[in-house]
Amino acid sequence: MELSIIIPSYNEKDNIRPIVRRIHEAMGSADISYEIWFVDDSSDETVQVLSELVTEDERVNVHHREGERGLASAVVRGFKLARGRYFIVMDADLQHPPELLPAMYERLKQGTDIVIPSRFVEGGSDGGLGPFRKLVSWTARVIGQLALHRLRRISDCTSGFFGLQREVVEGAELDPIGWKILIEVLVKGHYRTVHEIAYAFLARDAGESKMSMHEQWNYFRHLVRLVSQSPSDRRFFLFCIIGASGVIVNELMLTILLYAFHMKDTPASILASLVAMLNNYIWNDQITWRSPREGRKWNVKLPLFVAISLVGILITTLVMHACERIGFIVPVGQAVGILVSTVWSYVMNNKVTWRETEHRERGDIVVTRESAPTAFTRVKSGV
Ligand SMILES: Nc1nc2c(ncn2[C@@H]2O[C@H](COP(=O)(O)OP(=O)(O)O)[C@@H](O)[C@H]2O)c(=O)[nH]1
Ligand SMILES: [Mg+2]
After folding, report:
1. Of the residues 6, 7, 10, which should be mutated to test ligand 1's pocket, given the most ligand atoms within 8 Å of the CB?
2. pLDDT tens digits, residue range 8-21?
3. How far apart are CA 312 and CA 344, in angstroms?
């Protein structure tokens, strides 16, 4: 078996037959052995439609889960059931055009680990969503990309449409919450290459969306869990929290020095900053980079940390001025500067101050992009 197409479905009675037909049409010309797996949690006539289809069409397989819900866990079940060398996951409602399947398959066959049709690569669009859903979806993506470094370069990291080599998820401990199976795969999967293909996300053919506020909340919980399970993302998060705690220490110290010790403004300000720096150093040493790091002494680490922080202050000011020059007000420029210098300090401290002892297998992930041929982007589903 070459390819397994995995489709999570929940109350999609009017979409099941059309999507199977469209998949066969799309795959018809290609000489590929493939199977379709519906992982279904439906409580309506979808169940009957699927059981009829299984007897009519040998390529169709159904796994019905009784009393269970959840798009992402349905896909994980699909990964376990599927027999193909390659997997492609897509929705049942034809918002993901099956016409893209042969191109995705070709890429997988050439050895790309993960293929993601993207709404946000040149030539793609997400016309299938209303303005409110677009805003929610954009916010969710940005928060995800800030929290998890492996999502940063993937333009459509919350997509429900993607293909992968079986090995990407085999042996990975997938344990998603809610809907966004792709973020789970991107964070925990074993892969080196990602290819994005532009496509147009279309409006639903029939039935209605099952997206809800509850699912947005699940997405947030899922992110928190992934951050806690991914050492480097967890470190960056802790570093930011400790940095923020330093601001409170700084202000508190300043108040004490000014009003209890009647110090002058400038020395009070400098001393408060130094105390905050010491505060940050101690917490980072004890929490952020606790182990397994090189056993350097504090008299090496502390000066390095201070030097990096001082350069960070310089960076903040330079960025603030640069922003001011292009028309932003000073506080906004300062905020951008703080952001840049936080990333600077984190990267430098991670690489220099608390240098890792063991050689970790690194290797960057390579992301390539392709704008889709018009034929793929203009397909209208069933209309
Ligand atoms: N198995 C399973 N599939 C689900 C569940 N919730 C949604 N789906 C399917 O996931 C896909 C995406 O859902 P949809 O409502 O279209 O979300 P939207 O495209 O983001 O509006 C569709 O194929 C749904 O039938 C679920 O709890 N279990
Ligand atoms: Mg949909």
Report:
1. 10
2. 999 999 999 999 99
3. 7
Both tokens assigned to 262: 């009647």
Instruction: Please give the structure tokens belonging to residue 362.
Output: 């690194």
CB 333 within 8 A of CB 320: yes
Q: What percent of the chain has pLDDT over 70?
A: 94
pLDDT at 206: 87
Spell out where the chain has E strands.
3-9, 34-40, 60-64, 86-89, 114-118, 162-165, 193-198, 366-370
**Residue 144, pLDDT score:** 96
Q: What is the DSSP string of 75-123?
A: HHHHHHH--SSEEEE--SSSSS-GGGHHHHHHHHHTT-SEEEEESSSTT
The owner of tokens 């390819």 is 3
Omega of the bond leading into 303 within 30 degrees of 0 (cis): no
Q: Which atom of ligand 1 is nearest to the CA of 11?
A: 25
The DSSP symbol for 129 reads S
**Quick one: tokens of 137?**
């979806």
What gap in Å lies between CA 108 and CA 105, rounded to an integer?
5
Cβ-proximal residues to 99 (8 Å cutoff; 6+ apart), any chain = 22, 26, 375, 376, 379
The token pair that represents 213 in the structure block: 């506020």
CA dihedral 187, 189, 192, 197 (to 10 degrees): -80
The atom of ligand 1 lying closest to the CA of 74 is: 1
* Residue minimizing CA distance to atom 12 of ligand 1: 91
Which residues have beta carbons under 5 A from ligand 2 (an ion)? 91, 93, 95
Could you tell me how many residues make up the chain? 383
pLDDT, mean over the chain: 91
Nearest CA among 84, 78, 74, 72 for reference residue 27: 84
Q: What is the pLDDT of residues 41-87, one digit of tens each?
A: 999 999 999 999 999 999 999 999 998 999 999 999 999 999 999 99
Q: How confident is the model at residue 358 (pLDDT cuts 50, 70, 90)?
A: low
CB 147 within 8 A of CB 237: yes
Maximum Cα–Cα distance for the chain, whole Å? 87
